[in-house]
């Protein structure tokens, strides 16, 4: 047993200095605009290499690096999005890519996969002749060292049978694919067992889960599964198939997502394997064999794994004892799970990625997440709770500016995107940048946020621009009642849905805000529905219709004359999630109405600030705007 975990290199946890007044050690703006040095690293099955996005001269490239010598190799840059990556075996990587295509005059987003050799010399498209818009759903990867995987994908765009995905057995080293399961009407999602047998498909209709089709083995026919008495959206489905003929499934029948045993073929739920009284369980890590649970992921105040695997449970315990609970998270592992990648850092730090061969006590640092900040601690991050005006309990992430006394400070309200998402305690470059300027930053997990159970999520139905906005205002009241902030010195800043909330605040809630800042915000819900329908299919209509009963009434574009607070609007032309048209339409209406606004359009900007130049330009514009309307 390891008695302690040793970290090579510099001490990780450097203390923040206690300061008053101006900060002599202020962090330059470039530190916050810096791209993460390493993003989503994945360890090869033999534990000798990693694949990750790496920041190179302000841009991100996919790179393979040996942990034991040798020059790193990277994939050729292109305008195609690199969305995700996974090792298939020690020699091949599967990469999910996406790009805009124009079909019948409509701009649509198409996804696919490519096979990339570990030396980055070969890149192979997979079965390009038979592909539709969505062709990147890998549902199984072989564990025997072969370059095989199962891919669920649409096969074309001309007929409904092509729109519903089929499943292919793919050799990623050749790009060749053999169809093993043909499409079924209404089935949009497939899952396979650890042996690579497709066992279950989810039936969706108008955006709702209606049941599924199931078979016990490859030689059986699929038959329909319909669970009487269950709400359509809450039908449980197997996520892991066990060797004893049972399965594991997530279910929210007790109000929060939890992991249960499931009988097959009845689909009857059995014993609860793991659940939490306050939060949803949101992910499952399968065992190395792929036939049971090794861990579940859950975000309480911070994101972490609850390990069932006894060896990794002990490893996580050693990390917690040595570095403090929550300060070290296992993020990747090799095939026998004895060689690990561990992210280390608290929410006030950018942190670092370490390699750990667990046969030894010492961890080796691979990379700081920020080459400028390295191990530096910035402003303190914590979780606070308050009641909304109707009594709803709201949780929020609070960042307090270092070196300032917690009294009558200016405030930035920062709603998260989604809105089907949530904030937890983690390093966030936007929040830390604003705190460094002297602002308190609060990120409310308003009603409709995920992670707090079905009832809390459903409180957001129909509340875009209404009670969801009220929850943000009530955060201001909470901090003002404590004397922490000056309620007359508040601005709102957000991106995506958070950008919508900022637009709506400048229009509906302007008495509470001196200014608003929207990045990639939505100004017209009806236009967004039409865009998503082209992108994702008709099933998104039911989602959008849940958000508001009257799109026009809560769409800022149609209420430009009511804007009472100045607003900074920023958007990237290459944004493929929220089209730049959403911001352009609002700018046009504000101009007609003679309302104060500033507009920043970034020619190469996307939805995720993938270029450091765009981050830096935005942060400079943001600082100038806040200095003008709500100086710290």
Envelope shape: globular
Q: What characterizes the major β-sheet?
A: 8 strands, mixed
Strand content: 35-45%
Using DSSP, what is the number of strands? 36
Helical coverage, percent range = 10-25%
CATH superfamily of the domain at 380-629: Alpha/Beta hydrolase fold, catalytic domain
Helix segment count? 11
CATH topology of the domain at 380-629: Rossmann fold
Q: Strand order, biggest sheet?
A: 29-30-32-31-33-34-35-36
Regions with little confidence, pLDDT below 50 for 5+ residues: 13-21
Second CATH tier, the architecture of the domain at 380-629: 3-Layer(aba) Sandwich
Radius of gyration over all CA atoms, rounded: 25 Å
Distance between the termini: 51 Å
- Rounded mean pLDDT is 90
Structural class: alpha+beta
- So what's the CATH class of the domain at 380-629? Alpha Beta
Question: Can you offer a commentary on this structure?
Answer:
It is a single chain. This protein has a domain at 380-629: Rossmann fold, CATH 3.40.50. With 632 residues, the protein is an alpha+beta fold. An eight-stranded mixed sheet has the order 29-30-32-31-33-34-35-36, sandwiched between helices. The protein has eleven helices and 36 strands.
């Amino acid at each position: 047993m390891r008695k302690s975990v040793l970290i090579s290199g510099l001490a990780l946890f450097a203390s923040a200095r206690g300061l008053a007044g101006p900060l002599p050690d202020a962090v330059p703006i470039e530190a916050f605009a810096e791209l993460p040095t390493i993003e989503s690293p994945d360890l090869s099955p033999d534990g000798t290499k990693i694949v990750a996005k790496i920041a190179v001269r302000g841009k991100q490239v996919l790179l393979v690096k040996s942990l034991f010598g040798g020059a790193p190799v990277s994939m050729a840059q292109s305008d195609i999005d690199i969305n995700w990556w996974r090792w298939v075996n020690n020699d091949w990587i599967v990469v999910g890519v996406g790009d805009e295509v124009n079909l019948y005059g409509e701009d649509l987003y198409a996804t696919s996969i490519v096979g990339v050799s570990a030396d980055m010399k070969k890149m192979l498209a997979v079965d390009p002749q038979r592909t539709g818009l969505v062709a990147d759903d890998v549902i199984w990867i072989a564990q025997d060292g072969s370059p095989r995987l199962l891919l669920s994908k649409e096969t074309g765009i001309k007929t409904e049978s092509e729109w519903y995905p089929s499943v292919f057995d793919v050799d990623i080293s050749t790009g060749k694919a053999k169809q093993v399961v043909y499409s079924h009407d209404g089935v949009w999602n497939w899952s396979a067992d650890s042996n690579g047998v497709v066992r279950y498909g989810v039936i969706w209709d108008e955006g709702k889960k209606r049941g599924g089709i199931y078979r016990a083995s490859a030689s059986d026919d699929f038959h329909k599964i319909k669970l009487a008495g269950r709400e359509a959206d809450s039908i449980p489905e197997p996520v892991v198939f066990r060797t004893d003929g049972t399965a594991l499934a997530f279910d929210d029948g007790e109000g929060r997502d939890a992991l249960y045993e499931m009988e097959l073929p009845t689909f009857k739920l059995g014993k609860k394997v793991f659940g939490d009284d306050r939060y949803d369980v949101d992910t499952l890590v399968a065992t190395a064999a792929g036939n049971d649970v090794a861990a579940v992921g859950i975000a309480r105040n911070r994101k972490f794994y609850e390990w069932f695997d006894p060896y990794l449970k002990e490893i996580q315990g050693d990390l917690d004892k040595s570095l403090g609970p929550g300060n070290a998270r296992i993020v990747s592992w090799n095939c026998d799970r004895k060689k690990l990648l561990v992210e280390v850092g608290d929410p006030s730090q950018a942190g670092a990625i370490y390699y750990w061969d667990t046969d030894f006590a010492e961890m080796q640092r691979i990379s700081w997440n920020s080459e400028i900040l390295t191990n530096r601690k910035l402003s303190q991050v914590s979780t606070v709770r308050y009641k909304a005006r109707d009594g709803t309990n709201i949780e929020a992430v609070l960042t307090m500016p270092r070196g300032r006394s917690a009294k009558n400070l200016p405030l930035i309200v920062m709603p998260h995107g989604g809105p089907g998402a949530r904030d937890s305690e983690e390093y966030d470059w936007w929040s830390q940048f604003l705190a460094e300027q002297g602002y308190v930053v609060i990120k409310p997990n308003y009603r409709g946020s995920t992670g707090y159970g079905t009832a809390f999520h459903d409180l957001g139905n129909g509340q875009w621009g209404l009670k969801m906005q009220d929850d943000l205002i009530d955060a201001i009241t909470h901090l003002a009642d404590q004397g922490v902030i000056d309620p007359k010195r508040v601005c709102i800043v957000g991106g995506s849905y958070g950008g919508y909330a900022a637009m709506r605040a400048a229009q509906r809630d302007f008495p509470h805000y001196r200014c608003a800042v929207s990045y990639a915000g939505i100004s017209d819900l009806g236009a967004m529905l039409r865009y998503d329908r082209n992108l994702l299919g008709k099933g998104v209509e039911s989602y959008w219709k849940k958000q508001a009963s009257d799109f026009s009434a809560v769409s800022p574009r149609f209420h430009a004359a009511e804007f009472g607070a100045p607003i900074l609007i920023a958007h990237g032309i290459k944004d493929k999630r929220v089209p730049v048209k959403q911001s352009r339409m609002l700018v046009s209406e504000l101009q007609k109405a003679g309302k104060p606004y500033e507009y920043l359009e970034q020619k190469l900007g996307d939805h995720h600030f993938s270029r450091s130049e765009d981050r830096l330009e935005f942060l400079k514009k943001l600082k100038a705007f806040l200095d003008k309307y709500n100086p710290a």
